[in-house]
Amino acid sequence: MATGGANKTISAASALAHTKKPSKESSFPSGILRAALAVLLISFVAWAYKAIRPPPPKICGAPGGPPVTAPRFKLRDGRNLAYQEYGVPKDAAQHKIISIVGLNSCRLDEVLSKTLSPDVVEDLGIYIVSFDRPGYGESDPNPNLTVKSLALDIEELADKLELGSKFYIVGYSLGGMITWGCLKYIPHRLAGAVLLAPAVNYWWRGLPANLSNEAFYQQKIQDQWAYRIAHYTPWLTYWWNTQKWFPSSSIISQNYMFSHQDLQLISKLADKESYRAQIRQQGEYESVHSDVNFACHKWEFSPLELENPFPNNEGSVHLWQGDEDLMVATKLQPYIAKKLPWIHYHELQGAGHMFPHADGMTDIIIKSLLHGK
Question: Closest by alpha carbon to 54, among 217, 293, 277?
């Protein structure tokens, strides 16, 4: 018997559509999610900017900065350069030497004044002046620091102190590296030069890749990374050496590798404690971080391309290196010296990085320089 209405076939999908309750809107609206992500992104960018940006320097003599205690003069660009004089009076000197100190050092770390015998100083009439490199001690930082600018600072120091048309350069460690810049940019002002355990840039043109890589991978892993960052992304140097996730540069953190001889000589540096606070007083970035960037950046020239600054033997250049030095690339020094046959190369058996502090060593070094042997 027929019912009052026609039978209808309803699909499962249709039935589900009719019976499904309307979905509620998400309890976390997409607009709020986007806003939260934006806040997180902005916070990260702000943190990253703060992390990679070094604090402003504490300029000596400026309000809130350390006091000025050393003699200083103004350079051509308005920066102040602090210096310290040693030896015989300048006017009585027969030989005038500008000494360039190394990384994490100031004018008071000058090695010749600490080690030369008084008889040698008096007999040879030796006058020595050291200086605070930009950002160290009481010398103003130089945000535009280059190899050339440092060489010109040294030339201006000589002129301000009226050292004459010619003077000697002695550079130790990073100071030795800076001496290459003097040989490049002010060779006409030099009477002679000494490089003591000079630091090496692994990216200098002319260094064989296999030899450079071998020397590079002999450094601590933490230093390999610090050098890579300084070379490829120098704007991250401050962050890398202040973050706590990975080990920073061992040199900046003063976790040095000492040779057997270094351990025997380290007690001779005990006086450094009396002025250690002065060395980085204007800021870590302005001093040691800037040095690492300087040492590892792409130089505008390579020392292996230098020409003999004394073609008529009117002066001499000496490179002294200990064969057990664990702080600089010992393997690269003989190669550099071989490529520059006008250099007098002296390799010291069993010597480390601190060999200039060994008894009588600087007497030998200075006599070799002044006598051209």
Answer: 293
